[in-house]
Amino acid sequence: MVNYIIRRLLMVPLLLFGVTVLIFLMLQVLSPVERSALYVRDIPRNERVLEGIIKRYGLDQPVHIQYWKWLMGTIDPQTGDRQGGILRGEFGYSRTASQPVAEMLARRFPASLELALLAVIPVIAGGILLGVVGAVNHNKPLDQFVRIFGIVGWSFPDFVFGLLLLMLFYANLGWFPPGRISDWANQIVQSPEFHNYTQLITIDSLLNLRFDIFWDALRHLIMPVITLAYLWWALTLRVTRSSMLETLRQDYITTARAKGLSERTVIRRHALPNGLMPVITLGGNTVVGLLSGVVIVETVYNYPGIGSAAADAAVNLDVITVLAFVLLNGFILVMANLIVDILYAYIDPRVRLD
Amino acid sequence: MSKKTWWSVLGLLVIASMVLGACGAPEPEVVVETVVVTKEVQGETVEVVVTATPEPVVPVEFKSADPSTFVVAAISEGIDTLDPAWNYESDGDDIILNLYDQLVTYEGPNASKFVPALATDWTISEDGMTYVFNIREGVKFHNGADLTPEDVAYTIQRGVLQGGTWSPQWLFTEPFFGTGIYDIAELVDETGALDDDPDGVKAADPEALMAACERVMDVVQYDDAAGTVTFNLSQSWAPFLATLAQSWGSILDKDWAIEQGAWDGDCATWQNYYGITSETTPLRDKTNGTGPYMLESWTPGEEKVLVANPDWWRTEPTFEGGKTAPTIERIVVKGVSEWGTRYAMLQAGDADGADVPRENIAQVDPMVGEWCEYNAETLGFDCAPTENPNGPLRLFRGAPATTRTDAMFVFDINAEGGNPYIGSGELDGNGIPTDFFSDVHVRKAFNYCFDWDAFIADALAGEAIQNVGPLIPGMVGYDQNGPMYSYDPAMCEEELKLAWDGQVWENGFRMQVAYNTGNVTRQTVAQILQATLSDIDPKFQVEIIGLPWPSFLAAIRASRLPLYISGWQEDLHDPHNWAQPFMIGTYAARQVLPDWMVAEFQELVNAGVAATTDEERAEVYKQLTQLDYDYAIAIRLAVATGRHYEQRWVGDYYYNAINAWTGRYYSMSKQ
Amino acid sequence: MTNETKQTLVIDEEQFLPRREMSNLERWLGTDTYRALRGMVTNPTSIVGLVLLGLFLFIALAAPILAPPISSNPYQIPRDGYGSVPKPPGTLWNSRQPELPFWWKPIMGTDQWVHIMGTASGQWDIYYGVVWGTRTALQVGLLITFVGAAVGITIGAVSAYYGGWLDMVLMRITDIFMAFPFMLAAMTLSAVLTPVLGKGLFPPMIALMAFGWTGFARLLRSDILSVREREYVLAAQVIGVKDARILFRHILPNAIFPTLVLGSMRIGSYVITFAGLSFLGIGAEVGYADWGQLLSFARAWMTNLGEYWYIVIFPGVALVLFTLSWNLVGDALRDVLDPRMQGSR
After folding, report:
1. Interval B520-546 mean pLDDT
2. For labelling alongside B4, which of A8, B478, B569, C318 has CA 20 to 30 A away?
3. Is C5 a domain residue?
4. Are A264 and A233 in a shared domain?
5. Distance from CA of A54 to the nearest CA of B (A)
6. pLDDT confidence band for C179 (50 / 70 / 90)
7. Does the distance separating the beta carbons of C300 and B554 come in below 8 Å?
8. Which residue has the higher pLDDT, B36 or B588?
């Protein structure tokens, strides 16, 4: 088991190396002038600007040198100091977010995490419930309804769904505002009296016993959570449903039924524990999927997480920022998969990690 | 149909109706006839209506939930830096101008008149080359330090020595060292090879480095005992006060700046600070000004929060009726990119002001209860209630903007390695030669073929003025009755027949006109040209191509586009800031104008900037406008008149063209 | 949305040896295919899906008749002026009116062409965009899925069948591609490709292909691995049948069904992702007949949707129904192809 974990962890740097090389190679499609477009908002004010930018940021250097610089940083010719370099923990500066990437991630990642964590609960809980209901009532009206509910959810573009919710619940009803937190609450959160233990406002506000702030944060989270959840329910319920259906056909279920156990007991005691096995995998995937799926949802709701920053960066070819987002995402992905595998081995004695 | 079939169909129907219901249900109670409202309230008719029928409207009190905080929902929060020497974005100006003071400032809404700020008064020498400023005493920075003439001199010196061709410092280097010098590094190596090359500058000859720095010291001198700062310019420079009044003229505290890690004030070390960029400057997120507001926080991409400075020094208002102390406690400028969100914030009263794109004005107009039309005479607004007098918003309208979009002809198109934009590259009806636009008849034909009325009506919602020549309305030397083209298909046809000895008329042509995607105005310009030219004869083919911003930029820079559509936002409210880029500078260079033409323009542009009286300048710019018309080097389009919406509980707004619609917050009030 | 559920297909021979009469059609198609086809046309959800799909196919094929093009490029939506305020359905067409198709007068009873579904900001005719957008959606969805699936199937099959270091290398490459957040990867690659290829459908399509194959490769690989250990494959190997023949004759046909299901479900989600890219400003040029592009116009008018509902409803419903039809078909296909469902139906 320990061997397995070490082997898996060794894969992480390899994977991340591959990902970053891929991004650098992608960028080589563009000429230096095209790459310098990130640094100017409109036609430059004087005719020497672009040359200056290309020179200053070394945009015309060969790809391997640019990659090396990004990896190891540059050396100041006068002082001999090394500056930057991702291996030295310096992520660089994000042009699109107008701040160092590390600051940007530190600020925005908790926001996205909060959103993803809150969305996982309804996704998994609702998805499992609906899936089980569907499977138990197989081919009955309820099952058909659940199936179609899921398929429609899966077919609904998130941006259309999101904008419709925004329009209805904010513009018309005024119930749920966009953004992450109201201005008055933000002042309190930023103030020294408020302790930010986790950076997740919902949790911190509870720990600080500020229920008004908790409620405010929740109001901002409801719409993005519903949007994410509705779209991801489909997948969860489908997996749960088919896995439960398969379990319900197993011999031991038939045996249990033959013993005269009530259908309720059969499902609770025998079918559920086994039928929900794939949901563990799904849970891990969902967290990862939600984190990368927030790109559009955050943009629509003006939610200040990493997704909206990443979208902005990708459209503007801000490669430094994109790299950071991809590295983070890749890392979470690998770790989530690892945890899922270990959980499996722990729950199901037939699975061996070696 | 079996039972389960029936159920699944029902399920589908239910969901479909939910979907449709969700879309159809929320109908806001807005009136559809917004356009009618707009037209009826425009112009003088307003006054007639108002005086004739004094409506017995119950006056509605407009009170906000929180009068101490002013919230702006801006389209973006897109600033790189708060270092005044580096910031070159209007979003940054919006903040910096409220945190810092400059030597001089504008007389309230008047963008061409200057009043004392950190300088109590000043003298300009006869030849216009020496400026002496008396520095105000008793002014304190936000950190409590006193303002001295040394701080002023250090600020300007540091900015210039820090360099950077894409910083605003070129606006100082030209008057200081001569036209065409865009960066301090050009004093070390005049070819410009060292521009933006910090390693190269560090390695340069120490004597040359020292000499460059000493030249800066000569230009900007101070005398603490006399309390003066003196600028010795290389030539007479009419827009110099305008240059000092902008955000890059913001005065820093020297000791504080050095503490933060900025240049230490020693000529021997300046090269170590050269080439700092907007993101690496130590003053990127640190501020310490003398201004009416202090920075509380800046969260890039989200918001900026300012709090009032209770000890602000100002005692005299900048204009009659102006304020001398901020009345609103906190200013919050939020970046909200999604229009729907900004709109909802306006509706809910969560935003006191919001950016409203022109294409969305019809959505906001029904909420307007008071309509304020710009009055160019008084530089103020004449307000009147609308048909919906209880509407929560106030609209300011009609003030000319300080940006313009033009269509520029490229005289010598770069066709190296093939150029898809010019088709075959021959006058065979399937392309254009690289020097197509070097024939004045072609350029005139394109001018006569442009439908300004359609452009103003459709792209600018009818709110614009056709522009005459390279300057913009309201400036010295601009004359609305000057020479300009108008849409005239007959003249267009005639010019096309003359062009290229009739070959154009005989064979026709095909070319591509590009715009950067997402820019609707530029796209519409291209579409109008396409339509009007093909109306003359379908063999005149203009194809429209939307390029992503990077390729658009690269194509313009390489002069590969036969005709490009681009805009300019002024740095200074001065004719030179328009004449220079359009006639000899950044645009003219990409247009590859012939040398003789540039020489002719250059002479006038230089005379215009050096002239010391307004009459002299007006005469020079009149000649320039005439040349611009005769040579038809571009299609000069139109200057839009802007709009600004605010909640009616906001008061004391004034419009100064140079700040566009963002304000000096200290002069505003909120109920 | 990278992770599809994995379903292994177990061929339970005994179940397929029914002692009953076979119809000629069944004999000609083979038992499995016949059963699948029969399932598809009797399953209510798949019927709805197929009908919708047929409708979209009809619209795509009949596009030139339904909405006659006026310029040489039929995918260019005609526009009626340049104004920004959308006009409601039924507004008369003012300038550069398209030709009237033959069906217009008998049905509409007038010879004035109107904006059937209104116009979007910029006066683009929505009806035209929705009709021709159907072609775009079909092309985009099918092409991306086809290329993505072809690449994925090849890699998955090679990887699973040969195993060893080749498998190792291919799967690590797959891992690298999967470590990218899909949406972001597609955005980055299309943003990079757009300056090179020009604005249009190709950059986002290529981007989606480049990152879309991994799911297919993974799924097929695991299915092949389970099929490969079957007795009949082992038997074929023992008697010396060639590799390629075993792969194509014995393994692929038995392992491919889940991949097909995945493919049909993916068509819909690719069209959504593609529309999402257009919505964010990447993808088709302004005025190109593409639903996502039309929907992006609606972005600025969402809060006034009560008034301008038509700019989002028509392209939005088209997009949702299109995706829905593929997903319904895919879902039904999954059920009928899964023999374990047989008993319970």
Report:
1. 87
2. C318
3. no
4. yes
5. 9
6. confident
7. no
8. B588
Identify the CA nearest to B252 among candidates B157, B384, B383: B157
- The CA-atom distances, in angstroms, between C168 and each of A333, B301, C172, C221, C227 are 19, 43, 6, 12, 19
Domains: count for chain A? 2
CB contact under 8 A, A104 and B300: yes
Domain span at B528: 403-640
B585 close contact with A: CB closer than 8 A: yes
> Which chain C residue has the Cα nearest residue A320?
C188
Residues 6+ apart with CB under 8 A from B138: B146, B313
pLDDT single digits (tens) A202-227: 888 888 777 888 888 888 888 888 88
> Is the same domain home to A90 and A105?
no
Q: What is the pLDDT of residue A130?
A: 83
A292-317 average pLDDT score = 81
Average pLDDT of B395-409?
89
Residue B257 inside a domain? The answer is yes
> The domain that contains B482 carries what CATH number?
3.10.105.10
A234 and A135 together in one domain: yes
Which of these ranges, A82-86, B456-460, B537-541, has the smallest mean pLDDT? A82-86
B463 has a pLDDT exceeding 80? yes
Indicate if B35 and B159 belong to the same structural domain: no
Output the pLDDT for position C1.
38
pLDDT of residue B441: 94
Q: Is the pLDDT of residue B467 over 70?
A: yes
- How much is the pLDDT for B77? 64
Q: Would you call A261 helix, strand, or coil by DSSP? A: coil
Distance from CA of C345 to the nearest CA of A (A): 8
Q: Report the gap between the CA of B300 and the closest CA in chain A (Å).
A: 6
Structural domain including A13 reads: 2-94
Shared domain check, A137 and A270: yes
Q: How far apart are CA A136 and CA A129, in angstroms?
A: 11
Higher pLDDT residue, A29 or B243?
B243
List chain C residues with CB under 8 Å of B463. Answer: none
Do A80 and A155 fall into the same domain?
no
Instruction: Decide if pLDDT at B100 tops 90.
Output: yes
User: What CATH number is associated with residue A348?
Assistant: 1.10.3720.10
The pLDDT confidence band at residue B23, using thresholds 50, 70 and 90, is very low
CA distance A38 to A35: 6
**Are the beta carbons of B202 and A77 separated by less than 8 Å?**
yes
CATH code assigned at C147: 1.10.3720.10
Chain B residues in contact with C310 (beta carbon < 8 A): none
Among candidate residues A94, A114, A144, the one where a domain is terminated: A94
Task: State how far residue A42 is from chain B, nearest Cα, in angstroms.
Answer: 8
Neighbouring C-beta atoms of residue B595, cutoff 10 Å? 9
Range of the domain at C332: 54-67+133-344
Nearest by CB to residue C188, choosing from A14, A166, A314, is A314
Q: Note whether C184 contacts A151, CB cutoff 8 Å.
A: no
Strand partners, B465: B639
Task: For residues B668 and B650, give the distance between their C-alpha atoms in angstroms, rounded to a whole number.
Answer: 7
Q: Report the alpha-carbon distance of residue A238 to residue B110 in Å, rounded.
A: 67
Tell me, yes or no, whether B343 and B422 share the same domain: no
Residues B635 and B657 in one domain: no
Tens of pLDDT, residues B105-127:
999 888 888 999 999 999 999 99
pLDDT > 70 fraction of chain A, expressed in percent and rounded: 93
Task: Render pLDDT for C61-81 as a digit per residue (tens, 0 to 9).
Answer: 988 888 888 777 788 888 887
Buried residues in C213-252 as b, exposed as e (16+ CB within 10 A) = bbbbbbbbbbbbbebbebeebeebeeeeeeeeebbeebbb
Q: Residue C49: inside a domain, yes or no?
A: no
Query: Structure pTM?
Result: 0.78
As a whole number of angstroms, the distance between CA A92 and CA A85 comes to 8
What is the rounded distance in angstroms from the CA atom of residue C118 to the CA atom of residue A83?
57
Q: What angle do CA B30, B31, B33 make, to 5 degrees?
A: 145
